[in-house]
Amino acid sequence: MSDTAPKKGTLVLFRHGQTPYNLQHFMTGLHDVPLTPQGEQQARDAGALIRPFHFDKAYSSTLVRAFNTAALALEASHSNDHLKNADGTWNIEQRPEIVEADSGDFTARNKLTDPEILAYPHKYDIALPNGESDKQMVERTRKFYEEELMPRLQRGETVLVVSHSGIMAAFEIVAGLKPEPVEDIWSNRHGIPNAAPVVYEYEDGKLVKNYTATAPVSPKPPQP
After folding, report:
1. Cβ–Cβ under 8 Å, residues 164 and 97
2. What are phi and psi of 18, to 5 degrees?
3. Which long-range contacts (CB under 8 A, 24 or more apart) does 78-85 make?
4. Distance CA 28, CA 63 (A)
């Protein structure tokens, strides 16, 4: 009798930890800023949340804030040492398709107060000056999702991806959780916290459940 049980794949996604630009409300784009000490701790805290997962593969963007978040989280998970290289470094594949949207001329400028940024057309398919549109960001994310991630998920693998707020929003679109918008998504990302793991569960390559990972709740002691 053939085995008809579905192959269950799992995709765990989260944004990098806090950076100095996050604190200053600067548009970061491709600027390779480091994590703050709080951002490093956020990454370690994420590690505790991903401890139940045994990853077959880990990816990050090519930017240091994403790679270092992934490495700190995996180290803190204490459950994924099989992903370490022989020299003790982490085998995290860095992919340019999942870097943050290029904010062009707006990079290192305050997105909440800069008059030029506030006056710029907030449309999904309009690129930022000398930068990238949300549509372009979503399309490269879609290519990575369909060509790199889906074959792994269809085989029943568990995969980690650490990226950026824009890419997190793009994943919601390419996974079919949200439609492509008319307005832009780069100016409405306040709901995507740093280093908060989100889990997508698949059966035979079909997304069946998604949720935010939380710490297990310890049972309350019996009342006297």
Report:
1. no
2. -60, 145
3. 78/47, 78/51, 79/50, 79/51, 79/52, 79/53, 79/54, 80/50, 80/53, 80/54, 80/55, 82/54, 83/55, 83/58
4. 11
Tell me the C-alpha distance between 218 and 115, whole Å.
49
pLDDT at 217: 45
Q: What is the pTM of this model?
A: 0.93
Please report the domains of the chain, with CATH numbers, ordered by start residue.
8-212 (3.40.50.1240)
160-202 pLDDT, tens digit each: 999 999 999 999 999 999 999 988 887 666 679 999 999 999 9
Q: What is the Cα 154 distance to its own chain's centre?
A: 20
Identity of the amino acid at 140: R
CA-based Rg of the chain, rounded to a whole angstrom? 18
Q: List active site positions.
A: 16, 100
Query: SS3 of 12, please?
Result: strand
Quick: pLDDT tens for 80-99. Answer: 999 999 999 999 999 999 99
H-run or E-run covering 116? helix 115-119
Encoded tokens for 102 = 């290029």
